[in-house]
Structures are given as C-alpha cells and as structure tokens.
Design brief:
This protein is an all-alpha fold and 328 residues long. It has 13 helices and no strands.
Amino acid sequence: MVASLVWGFSTSLWQAMVARAFLAIIAVFLGLRETLVTRKNKTDIGLLLKDKVVQRWTEWKKVYFGDEKSGEREPLLGSSDMQNETLEVVESDSQPQKQEPISWKDILTRQSVLCLIAYSMLGLQSGVYDMYIPIFMYHSRQDPSAIHLPLKFSGGFGSSTQTIGAMYAITGSFSIPFQFFFYPYMARRIGVLKCLKIVTLIYPLIYLLTPFITLLPSSLRLITLFIVIYIKACLTSFSYPCATVMLSQSIRDTRGLGTLNGILTAVSGLARALGPAIGGPSFTIGVKVGYLILPFGIVAGMALLAMPPVFLLRDSASETSDGDIEEE
C-alpha cells in the first residue's frame, strides 16, 4: 500500500519508477508461490521471510493491543498458525517421490514444435504489420497523376502524430471488450484450434487490403483504416491466446512446461527481432519503386507461411488418443 501511495503521489518519473519497481519486488518475492512440479516443494526464502514478518507483526500487535480474539470472533477453521501447520503436514506428506528426469523427446513433441513455429510466425507478421501502420499513416499522400492502377501507387495518409495516436487509442479501447467477452464465447463454442485456423485464414486478406485504402476518397480513408486495424486487433486477441493454449496442451509431461515456455520466449523473441530488419528495408524499397503493395505483400507471405503449421496441429483430445494407441 505504501509503494502504491508513493507511486500515486510521485512528482517525478524516477520516483514513480522506483515505487513501481519496489512494489513489483514485494509482490513477486514475498507473494508468489512456486507452481512448477519439480520445485514447488523446495524451500522458498521469500515465503519464509513473509512468514517471519507476519509472525513478528502478530506478536507486536498482541503486546500493544492485546489479543482481540474471543469465542465469537475466533475463526471457524482455527488460527492461521494451525492452518499453516496443517498445510505443512499436508505438503510434507504429499511430496512426490523421485522421478526420472524429463527428456527432450517429451518436451519437443511434434505438436509442441508446430505450436512454436506457429506462435513465432504470428509474432513476426503481427510485429511487422504493426510497425507499418504508423509509417503508412504518416507517409505523405501521392500525386494522383503518379498512380497507375491496379498496383503502382505509393501514397500514404499524411496524418499527424495526434491522429495516429488517437487511432490506436480508440482501437485499443474497442478491442478490450471483444477479447473479454467474444473470445471466451467463441473458444467454448467452436474450440480453440478452429478459432486459430479461422484467424490464420483472415490475416493475409487484411494485410493485402490495407495499402489499397489510400485509393479511397478522403472521406472514407480513416474510417476504413480504423475498421481494418480493429479487425486486426481482434484477430490478435484470438490468435495469441489460442496459440498459448495449444502450446500448453502439447507437452506430455507438465514438468517440462518451464523449459518449453523458455524456448517459446527465445524463439518468438528472435522472430520479433527479425521483423524490423525485414520490414524497414521492404517498406523503403516499396516506396522508392512506387509499389506500396510490396511490403504488405511480404507480410501476407509471412501469414501464408504460418498456415501449414497451424493446419497440421491436432486437438488435444485426438493427440492424447493417438499417444495412448502408440503406447499400447
């Protein structure tokens, strides 16, 4: 609470950053409990320190304020000390026996490798496209006499930075309810994998449609671009959760989830790093040669490359049944 108040009443940026960092350290170091199967029963210094602080605070409060508990105010489930002792007994009794170390074969299954490729390609194409949009909006308009339909044009919107910022703010605000309400409904209705496949099919169409918006009348350009960006944001709110769910269900042994998530972070980070290296030069070349369709066509090609791994994925139920058959 103190860190939150300091952050709220900060008078400079560094004060706010220090307060936020201190709050995060307290929350992570003292509040989180390990969930990884192989390490959940290990000694946690942060939790031990938190228990000591709580114990000292309780003793100090009893000394200066007395024990306020009475028969009517005593918790029905007993004191926190009794609960902690019970929890320790249960944890000590439920400690898993020694297991064989998990192998890479159990981590990098066919399904998980496909999920890693699909997730990385989603990050690559989405990052490049999101980089293009503000540049495309800020890029100056083209002289109509230099436009040669259907493909030779390189004009932008000539929008100000305020307009670009407002466009992204409105798009983000409108996409939040979509992710909260519509995505869970569709995931339950048709399944996570089908949602991912449908989204993957729509991505290339959005990318190829975007540069042609600049050819519309001035009164229709911004509203059309807003609709396209909003659809892209909705697709993103579908694709990443679906890919994450498929990845978590692809591993045979849950002890390898930490390793698999680490691999995912590294691979997707590499893909996101390649995005600007590919997107920047391609946009520059497209403007120089007069074909703005070139950079957006490259992004559409990335989306097409992401289709095979997505459509080769299988539902977790079928994956489990196939694994059982192989074991038999």
